[in-house]
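batch job 7 of whatever, protein = Serine/threonine-protein phosphatase 7 long form
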Amino acid sequence: MDRRAVYGPRDGTVLSQQLQHRSDDIPEGDIDVVLQAKRADGVFWNYFKDHDMHVRVLDVLHQIGFYGVYRCGRLVYDCHLITALVERWRPETHTFHFRVGEATITLEDVQIIWALPIDGLPVTGLDIERSTEEWQIYCREYLGFSPDEEAFKGSRLHTHAIMNFIRTVEITHDTPRPTVVQYTRCIAMLLLGGLMCPDSSGNMVPLLYLSKLEEINTARNYSWGSAVLAFLYRELCHASLKGKAAIGGALQLLQIWAWSRIIPLSPGLGVERLYMDQVQVNIDRFLPAAPYGAIWNCRHNFTRTVRTTVRVIRDILDNMQEDQFIWQPYDMDSDRIMAYAADFTPELWRSTCPLIFYAIVEIHHPERVLRQFGMRQNIPEMPDSRDMTLHQISRKARTGTDWGVQHILHIRRWQRRRDTIVNRPPISNERHTERGYWNDVEGLSRLLDRYDATLDNICQFVMHSNQNPTNENDPSTSHRQRRSNSRMSTTSAERDNIGVDIAGPSTAYTPQDYYVPQPSQQDDWFQSAPYMPSHAESYSAHVDLDLGLGVKTICTRI
């Protein structure tokens, strides 16, 4: 049997780029390639782990709209999980194609996880050209310092230069307001270039972003959430191509999105590492508590779920059952989400619209993932093939371009974003999808030779893995409540029926400590010591495979 014929989509009409997609190499044996995750925020979080960020700075961050991002802290990336997700990302639809249907990260997720504003002006404009000396003067005015010449690379500034300046400044209650604002712009630039929109450089931030922070009082008028999502979509699209070795963008958003929804890959939540409550600005004013994304910055327990290599995660996604994916994971009545409800624009979560970030334009497709909004999914329309050409447009060698003019048609579509809000009948107990939807999914989904996929990828991994296992026994770990009461897969007439049960500790990457933000008015920010699971000298891994073909295989290693 030609494995390529059963690994890609049966119908190439919609997913027309399979020959260029990284998943096309998997049948050829490229099954262990892991993407490198680009970010430039490690030094930032290390510094603020030991130095309190003053409440006046947090107040200005809240004015800008980045307060929620900071309150969520830093998570260590699971590059194996990210790689497996990228293999299922399709640039043609901007969705992940799972056995349970299409799903994607939307404006809803960006606003709930990081509390970023999504309504407002698009983040675009003139890509201005300046000499190094002119950039130094510009930085002096808006950042409060003049970087050395070697800190620049064209119109980009090295993040280390910004951090070196931050180390020299101490903000107090008596610090002049202009100095506090300049300092906060530095923080915002580091968050943008290091965590929210890190590019392939890994340590440079475009000074173009600073133009939207010049006026602090109007900075929140921009749709930072749609800009961050546009950048992430572009990175996912590029990383999904053959031969790509790295990925940037807001991967912390993506990882939390996956943990919140994919039950077999979601860790249990234990002791919090962050200060989660409100921050007092003065006697009668408080900043909100930490947003939803902050609850994941805690001790993680993987004893009832899977944390392992890309090969096993790939197989879990290949064989995912309906009740292993949570379409609506957020408790909208929880205090964590209600704290930001006044700033939410839920109608835009379902807007089919362009996401704009200077040169980047990517299309938001909520109409393809309606179950994420509690609506019955119909067969989506064919994506516009012209949208694929947008991936070829970048800022490279385009200094001096006015992207507000270049993308004027898409900006006009963004201005009409409330005219393209999707509405469908709500999900009922009897029907989650319209007739014919599952036939459409079957034609688009990756179809594996079940025997080859399961035995080759799972049993071989268990039998021949040489990684050190972990043994996690954390009595303080508590598990979050889920809308789904079962973690066991169920049969479905519309799916192949493969049961995978991995018992005992799984192999894992070595866990690292999590970095935590600390407002300056609290005393004990570390609610627990760093959790480092011990490594067992021997372990057993048991895989019970019911292939649905009259074959049952048990693989055990001691």
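notes: Residues 3-557 form one domain.
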